[in-house]
Design a protein that fits this description.
By secondary structure, the chain is of the alpha+beta class. About 55% of the residues lie in helices and about 5% in strands. The chain contains eight helices and four strands, in the order E-H-E-E-E-H-H-H-H-H-H-H. A hairpin with a 6-residue loop joins strand 2 and strand 3. The longest helix has about 35 residues. It starts with a strand and ends with a helix.
């Protein structure tokens, strides 16, 4: 007799009741009758999808190996270790207890590699964001500062400072907006490449796109607004004389 998880039941008997059905493993010398279906469990790492699994009585197990015992406690788990060792020794003193760990420690160790990988990717992503922000600010600020003569002419012809600043911002942010739209599209298209490195987070999480896109847009807005506002407030004659 044995239990199968939901994945194995779905793979072997899709749409059917697995209870009472027989299944065998390896060479088929031992058959097990399914007496129950249990939920899927991530046996190795949290980022690894559950596979097809079966649970049998240890006495029927045809694959002798080490045994893991899971104990749930409400108190201090460390204080329970001597009692566990004593309980196992009372059953068979020759059975060694190789290692005792808490579930938090098991989960932490299983996620060490993905966590390091995530930190490395996060570091590169942060560096890329800083470089992008600096580049956007520099290009936009330089472009606006080069329009000082044009701003002076428009003010001399009667344009108000607010109108000039609004037009300058609109003209400067148009290519930035187009770049953000293109960047989001390319990121969404390549999101499948990152799916294997993520757990509990969607590769196309809207909050990430909104946060990064909003931050870059704010940087571009500041880069365009500061020189445009400064240029719109100076005397047009000084603008023309400075550019001449």
């Amino acid at each position: 007799m044995g239990l199968v998880n939901e994945t194995l039941a779905r793979d072997l008997w899709p749409g059917l009741d697995p209870i009472g059905r027989a299944v065998h493993f390896d060479d088929g010398s031992i058959w097990f009758t399914v007496v129950g279906v249990v939920g899927d469990v991530r046996q190795h790492r949290l980022d690894c999808a559950p596979g097809s699994e079966a649970y049998v009585v240890y006495a029927q197990d045809s694959w002798p190996s080490a045994m893991s015992i899971v104990v749930r406690t409400r108190g201090d788990s460390a204080a329970l270790v001597p009692s566990l060792r004593e309980a196992v020794s009372s059953v068979d003193g020759d059975v060694p207890i190789r290692e005792v760990r808490t579930m938090d420690d098991v989960v932490h160790r299983s996620m060490t590699e993905p966590r390091i990988r995530a930190l490395v990717f996060s570091g590169f992503a942060a560096a890329a964001f800083v470089l992008s922000a600096v580049g956007v600010y520099g290009v936009v600020a330089y472009t606006v500062s080069r329009s000082t003569r044009d701003i002076g002419i428009r003010i001399a012809l009667g344009a108000t400072g607010k109108r000039v600043a609004a037009q300058t911002l609109s003209r400067s942010l148009t290519p930035v907006g187009a770049g953000l739209i293109l960047g989001v599209a390319l990121s969404a298209a390549s999101a499948s490449l990152l799916s294997s490195f993520l757990f509990g987070v969607e590769a196309t999480d809207p909050s990430v796109y909104l946060t990064v896109g909003g931050a870059l847009l704010a940087v571009a807005l500041a880069a365009a607004y500061v020189p445009a506002r400064r240029a719109s407030r100076i005397d047009p004659i000084d603008c023309l004389r400075m550019e001449g």
